[in-house]
Amino acid sequence: MRRTDVLFLCALASALLVALAARTAQARTPGELMREPVTGMEFAWVPGGCYDMGCGPWTQDCELYEHPAHRVCVGGFWLGRFEVTREQWAKVMGAAAPGGQPLAKDGGDLPVALVSWAEARRFAARLTELSAARGGGAFRLPTEAEWEYAARSGGRMESFPGAVSENEAGWYYENSGGRAHPVGGKARNGLGLHDMMGNVFEWCEDVFDRGFYARSPKDAPLCVDPGRTPADWRVRRGGSFGTLARDARTAMRGKLEPDSRDEFTGLRLLREPDSALPSPGKP
């Protein structure tokens, strides 16, 4: 067989695989679930789409760096149905949660906190390694654009996840009693995701830049340059049990140094799409 024929067949096979993956992704329904085999972590399917990211007429009390609202498109992905818990952290990292955080006495699953951005990325990388032999897939932190798209139930005009009241959506300063609560205790949004508001902040992959929205690309944006922002910060989203409700809106952009830890900050993982995964259905 000639070399040109081999190259043609390889290109054809690659195109067919891409087309098959695209058709499979399109066939999935929003909120379908898959379970990661090492920890049992559940992931909900978030279909790709375009939306207006940032501060628009659907929200209020915005900071300057939440402007301007701008058009953004993201591909489909799986996102953790809940925040990563202390038990899941211990299973992956082989050690107790940072700071010796205890498990919930009532049997609930408390979100892990005291996790730096760098540690959150190592957790995702380690889970990818452990899951590889069992078809678990590849995991990472979501980008800021992916996070907001998912929090707003696929880019809907929601100030709080699921278009419900803040008290129904999450745990924050005014209703938390000054502590984190077991995951899943509040209403899910339109994609079946819980705690996208409050409980603990969730790290995103992006570098924080106050002015990024003014120069953001439309397709799959990821900020890797702080621009004129005079600090080395990473984005964290969703607010926490220690923030006011207004500071836990879906558009609110939080920030923290990448090596810093605090009791208010944890993580939620994204799983890259894979056409081979089975899906047990909606929650």
How is this structure best described in words?
By secondary structure, the protein is α+β, with helices and mostly antiparallel strands. The chain has two domains: 1-27; 31-271, paralog of FGE (formylglycine-generating enzyme), CATH 3.90.1580.10. Helix content is 22%, strand content 17%. The protein has five helices and 13 strands. It has helices spanning 3-27, 86-93, 117-132, 144-151, 166-169; strands spanning 33-35, 42-46, 49-53, 70-74, 77-80, 139-140, 170-171, 197-198, 201-207, 234-237, 253-256, 265-266, 270-271. The chain has a five-stranded antiparallel β-sheet. Strands 11-10-9-12 form a four-stranded mixed β-sheet. A two-stranded antiparallel ribbon has the order 3-4. The longest helix is centred in the first third of the chain and has 25 residues, at 3-27. The radius of gyration is 19 Å and the shape is globular. The relative contact order is 0.20. Residues 6-24 and 275-283 have low confidence and may be disordered.
State the helical fraction.
10-25%
Question: Strands of the biggest beta sheet: in what spatial order?
Answer: 1-2-5-13-6
Mean pLDDT: 88
Shape: globular
Element string (H = helix, E = strand): HEEEEEHHEHHEEEEEEE
CATH superfamily of the largest domain: paralog of FGE (formylglycine-generating enzyme)
The tally of domains stands at 2
Q: What is the CATH top level name of the largest domain? A: Alpha Beta
* Tally of separate helices: 5
Under the CATH scheme, the architecture of the largest domain is Alpha-Beta Complex
Portion of residues in beta strands equals 15-25%
The Cα radius of gyration reads 19 Å
Total E-strand runs? 13
